[in-house]
Amino acid sequence: MKNKKVVNVLLGVLALLLVVGMAYQFTPNVGSLFGNRQQGTPALKVNGQTVTVEELEAIRRGNPVLGSVETGVLADDFKTFVVSQAVRQHLFQQAVGDIDVSRADVNAEVQKVREANNLNDNKAWTDALQGAGLTDATYRTQVRSQLAIQRKVEDLQKTAAPATDAEARAYYDLNPQAFQSDARIVGRQIVVADKAKAQSLLAQVRGGADFATLARQNSTEFKDRGGALGPVENGAPRPVAQVALPAEVGAAAFALTQGGVTDVVESGGKFYIVKVERFLPPAVKPFDEAKADAATAVTEQKKNAVVERWATDLERGAKVEAVDPNWKTENPTVAQVAGQKIPYSDVVAQVVQNQQFASLLGQVPGEQAAGLVNGILKPQVVEGLISGYGAEKLVQDRKLPLTGTRQELAAALAAYGARDVKVTDADIQAFYTQNRQQFETPGSATVAEASFPDRAKATAFRQGWNGQGSFVAAASRAGGTVSERGSVTAGGETLGEELNAAVFTSRNLRDVGEGSLSEVVPVGQRFSVAYVTDLKPGATQPLAAVRAQIQDQVLAQKRQEAGQAYLAREIATLGPVNNLQQVLAAQEKRVAAQAPKPPAATTPATPAQGNGEDAPAQNGGTGTSPTGTPADGGASSGNTR
């Protein structure tokens, strides 16, 4: 366990290089932790520096997705991903050779790891490192390298210009949800320790008694200000957010968007009644209040963009050679836009890191997964990459004050294109009508079922029991078998269709004692009567109560649709070229050529071939095995690594 912790902590150091918003992720190379890179079997050279087979295999082992398929186009994709990640890591490390990291800096970082893992004892530390395949010296070497990368990133980020007022304003205008205040209420509460007293006070409130007066006379909290939830200013309570109330109480109070009084709500052994005098829906803060936060967000985007450009330039200038033919990969240009070429490895990286893809691999065979990925996911990824790569050109041409990485710019352009979208009353009404079930609360009850062998006995019991004593005992004496169904919801599977209807939709419930009895219904070959308590009928929230919620939901949907349509139109003006289908066809052909061929059928010897003489060599007399293929796998497409 300690060994694993040491590796995980170092990976945490490596992960400091992750840049929010980058179109790809830097994947830490666990293999690089295990000793000197130059020790092992050479696989690639990156700008003359060796990448070993052991490093590449460590990347493969570090992600369970990469080992889930061993043949076919997905296996080819996974090899492309592994190689591209190793190349990226070497490029980063080569680029930080001039960054000075002192021995003291490394010692301090190592000490943090030791303390975090309770490895202050030297023997425990050494044992943990050895268990992970490390020595103290090699561990420190890798820590030094990763600290250098971290410092390089920080130095690059310092070169980013601060946000301008125009950029901050544009970010504010296009991201109103980021500056939206929480919903608040103006209200009062009564808090008591006794439920019966709370119920009595609630009855008085509903009978017209003054809430503030009752709070002063009875509440254990805020009685000095008439139960006001917020301090009283100029004769009125200040608004409060939902977090000012216990969870159950806050949920009940903030559901009263039209104002009103809650039922008695129990929380923490206390009983609450809240009167909502005014509901204040979420609202966007004025720009003056949000300006500083908007400027901070823009500056972070600009920092990320600087690092993204640095990483992209490193990759474009890299010289990659395959030393081991088994690690030769194809990385063709999958698309072009605005003078920029998009490598296929960018597509593969997003596919591998897609959570839905990982889930898919666990459900269907590799070949079927490959078909779905090639037909659905990869086209979507390529379109997204085209939008990202083209966004910078569009922003420059249109002189828009938008900032960020490629993907951030694409998102900002979409928001810009949807900035004038509005929601009408007709939109809200249509959504409410079409999605009414979304606003329905199903009925609930506590149910016990008495099952009888014939209708007569069931009917006699239903008519004869008056609710006195135990339902179970009474039904059993009448010849029934009782099943406690507990708390059930209308339409659920706990009750059958017949009992569901009898409990929640029938009007023939008979009041008895503290509950009621359903009518007699056939259930299979028997007849049942349900004893129902705590019955709460289903309810549908009125449009007025959910109007704000619907408006936000519809607005978000309309903005997304309008924004994506705008972005697609704008990208089209750049004349993008999408080569995905050609790339996939070439890959399929190449992978098929690399696949081992089944052994050729053996032909029985004929008299002409007999007499103990050897048969002539196959395949034109070359003696080549029928299964032999070129080591590099035949057909190539695009750039080769």
Q: Describe it for me?
A:
- It is a single chain.
- This protein has 21 helices and 21 strands.
- It is of the alpha+beta class.
- Among the domains are: 157 residues, Triger factor/SurA peptide-binding fold, CATH 1.10.4030; 99 residues, Chitinase A, domain 3 (Roll), CATH 3.10.50; 95 residues, Chitinase A, domain 3 (Roll), CATH 3.10.50.
- The strands form 6 sheets. Strands 14, 15, 16, 17, 18 and 19 form a 6-stranded antiparallel β-sheet that branches. Strands 3, 6, 7, 8 and 9 form a 5-stranded antiparallel β-sheet that branches. It has a 3-stranded antiparallel β-sheet with strand order 2-1-10.
- Helix 7 crosses helix 11, helix 12 crosses helix 14 and helix 14 crosses helix 15.
- The N terminus and C terminus are likely disordered.
The parts where pLDDT drops under 50 for at least 5 residues are 1-37, 606-640
**CATH class label of the domain at 2-158:** Mainly Alpha
Based on CA atoms alone, the radius of gyration comes out at: 35 Å
As for the CATH topology of the domain at 2-158, it is Triger factor/SurA peptide-binding fold
> Beta fraction of the residues?
5-15%
Number of continuous helical runs:
21
Biggest sheet overview: 6 strands, antiparallel
Integer average pLDDT:
87
List keywords for this structure.
single chain; 641 residues; alpha+beta; Triger factor/SurA peptide-binding fold; Chitinase A, domain 3; six-stranded antiparallel sheet; five-stranded antiparallel sheet; 21 helices; 21 strands; extended; disordered C terminus
